[in-house]
Each structure stands twice: as C-alpha cells, then as structure tokens.
Amino acid sequence: MSTHDEKTFIPYGKQSINQEDIDAVVRVLKSGWLTTGPEVASFEGALKKVAQTKHAMALSNGTAALHAVAHALQLGPGDEVIVPTITFTATANAAVYVGATPVFADVRSDDMLLDPEEVRKKITKNTKAIFAVDFAGQACDYHSLRGIADEYGLALVSDSCHAIGATYQGKPIADWADMAIFSFHPVKHICAGEGGAVVTNNDLWAKQIRRFRNHGIDKDVRQRQEQGTWYYEQVDLGYNYRLSDIHCALGRSQLAKLPKWIEERQRVAKAYAGYFAEQTGVRPLVAHKDRSHTYHLMIAVFDDQQSRDSAYELMRAHQIGVNVHYTPVHLQPFYQNNYGTGPGDCPVAEKLYDRILTLPMYPGLTQEDLERVFDLVSNVVVQPNNISKAG
What we know:
single chain; 15 strands
C-alpha cells in the first residue's frame, strides 16, 4: 500500500464554489430583491434551457419539489404511487405528504435502477403514478417505463435529483417523463445552498406548482408590484416553498458550469472504471451505452458484506468519507410500522444494500486522491488478511 498524506479528509461529495459564485450572491445582497425577485425568473429560464422544457419552477429544496408534484397530480387518500426502494426517503415521503400510499418496487441488480417488470407487478386499480429515480446520475429505462405508464394511464415522474444534465437515448429525461425534479443540495451537480426545481411542459401543472410554493396565493409580491395592486387571493392550500433570489443567483452561476463539471465527473468515473477492471471482489454499477451518465455517486458493489464493512471501517479510519446510499426505504422503521413493509419485499435491493459502498466522486478529485481510494479498496478485496496492518 502506497503512502499518502492521509490527514486530508476526502468526502464522498462536495460543492465547488469560486469567485464568480461569490460575486453573484453579493450582487443580489446589494440589490433591492432578496426573494421573489428577478433572479428567480432568470434561474428558471436557465433551467428550462438545460431541461429543454416549457416550464421550470424553483422551490426551496428537492423534497419540496416532490411534494409539489404530488399536489399537482392531485394524489390523495386511496391512491398508490410506485417508487423504487433504493432512493432517499423523500421520494416516498412525497406520496405520504398528500395522503397517498407509496408502493415499493425492486431494482435491477446491475445498475440499481427501478426494474420495469417489478413496476408492472405492483400496479393495481389504485395506482396513479410512477416515481422513477435516476439513481447515482444514470437515467432509468424510460422506454419501458413510458410504455407501462401509457398502457395503464399513469403519470410518470422522474426524480432526477441525481441526474441534472443526463440524457436517455439522446434526449433529456424530461422528454420521457411528465415532470422531472432536480436538487441543488451542496453534494449535487450544482449547488444553490439548498434548492430544488420541477420542470414540465404541462401548463396546468406548472400553474399549480407556482401557487403551491407560495401559500396557494395567485400572485407573489413582485407580480403585485408590477401590476400596481395590493390585492391577491389564496385559491389553494399551499406552503412557503419559495427559493430566494440569493439561492437562485448562486444556482444560476453554478448552472453555467454544469457541462464542465459533468465532463469532470465522467473523467473521474473513467479512472474508477480502469481500476475496477483490474480487480476481483468488487465492481461498479453498469453504465449503459444508450445514456449519458452524470455520476452524482460512485457506487462500488463488493462480493460480500464482510468486505464492504471492512472497506467502510478502513476508509473512514484513513479519512475517506465513504457512505452507503441507501438503506432500502421499505426497511425504514416508519414504513415498516405504518405501511407493513419489511424484509423480503424487495430482495434484490436488500441483497445489494449489504454490499454497496459510495466512494468519492466530485470535480477536483486528483489522481493522488484516487490512488488513496484505490489502495484502500485493494487492501480489502485483494489482501483481506492485511486489513489490520493497514490501520
């Protein structure tokens, strides 16, 4: 094992902020609008270009965006929403927020993406929507999912919080889904501090989401000022899910760098691919050739749980901030206690969960950083008897 300065902590993901980003935020702080101002529309305009959609609505975070989508679809008690069990809990929680029931579907073992055949098995007369998740930055099998959604008259929503800028068969994901959702959390591709967005071509849903993020009110402060009126009406029950101009300014500055950062992530992924090709006992997830992978996460799949657990402990001890994404949602206590889910419901996901580890993936990782990661993984999968020596 080579020696490196292992006092430097390497996280699994982080934001990249430069002077342009700082200047954009300072400019807004010196302006007359800190929220509901012109920067929101500017950011939304930039998002529409990336997503190639008619509408983009910025919200306070990705979870708020998911909640807004569930509201716009008029989901409620008695309705079922199919979600993959490998996702952050917010995807399923969005259904619960509106009184609907999340139904968990298993994933495929090669890519950990929602399995269309498992989706088909879960459909009932109460199913109203499919919430697909572009896990780790790779688009789902939208050809199959779109066909299933159309066959049964279901809404198809893409939780693309991991995959802004990704494509499927040469088209943006929003071309396949009825609505797509993005996140601008610091570990995502672009950072707004916090933030999320919904993109769609549907006029009615866009109007409903704009109201929903603003307490259900038909006009925000800036619109009332422009119209020279104080009057507004609350026409729906909504929330304060607005994204401020400060966040939008940072988001818009970051969005301009997205193509470069995707290329950088793909460079890092290529280095990982070269490493994995020479190893036994560990593999990456399959990257499909008909998709542009944006690599939010780098997932390593070990042959057994012991190796994964050993790698986690060893790498954490050597200042590598590895993580596990995710505990299958159907195994979370809330869902087991309230929805009767449990072990055995999604066997592929459950087996993978015991063997996956999230390795560092972000722009700016150096070759030396990657060699530190490679050395530690190799120490587990190639020389398992030497783990204690490496510590």
